[in-house]
UniProtKB/TrEMBL annotation:
Gene3D superfamilies: 3.30.300.20
Transmembrane feature ranges: none
Protein species of origin: Amycolatopsis echigonensis
One Pfam entry name: OsmC
UniProt-recorded name of the protein: OsmC-like protein
Listed SUPFAM superfamilies: OsmC-like
InterPro entries noted in UniProt: KH_dom-like_a/b, OsmC/Ohr_fam, OsmC/Ohr_hydroprdx_reductase, OsmC/Ohrsf
Length: 165
């Protein structure tokens, strides 16, 4: 099924009933047995591991949470570029994205309560290849910036509720 087919099918389903546009995602996490930092993650029928590098007390068995956050942003950018290129009819042969983020550990470790524990700066570098004009690729970039769900998470405050049982 092509991205155009997905777009058309979704448009039809949403026009039939706007509630068809509402989706929810769920991810389960559990600390691995006999570890201090290894987290086992389950998403639908997929599983992966999260850990910290030794400098942060981990065993470096996998990427850490902030690296996965950057990976989520970069992956969402690549997918959103593909999606919007198809939607706008802009030919696109290749998309490469690199995401860098700066974090000050004063916030995470609580050494300075005025320091944010999250990223202080995130930089997204996108390389597009294809036969379209620079103006078309700029139009595509604007569409992606307006519609990328993970970029929206980075740019805007999202309500989060935590319940401890």
């Amino acid at each position: 099924m092509s991205l155009t087919d997905v777009i058309d099918g979704t448009r039809q389903a949403v026009q039939t009933d706007r509630h068809n546009a509402a989706v929810s995602f769920s991810v389960d996490h559990e600390l691995a047995a006999n570890t201090a930092t290894v987290v086992e993650v389950r998403v639908r029928d997929h599983a992966f591991t999260v850990d910290e590098p030794p400098a942060l007390g981990g065993t470096d068995q996998a990427a850490n949470p902030v690296e996965y956050a950057l990976a989520a942003l970069g992956s969402c950018q690549v997918i959103t570029y593909q999606f919007w290129a198809a939607r706008l009819g802009i030919p696109l042969d290749a998309v490469r994205v690199k995401v860098d983020g700066d974090l000050d550990l004063h916030g995470f470790f609580g050494f300075d309560e005025s320091t944010r524990p999250g990223f202080s700066d995130v930089r997204v570098s996108v390389e597009l290849e294809g036969p379209a004009s620079p103006e078309a690729y700029e139009q595509l970039r604007r569409a992606v910036d307006e519609h990328c769900p993970v970029l929206d998470l980075f740019r805007n405050q999202t309500p989060v509720t935590t319940t401890v049982r």
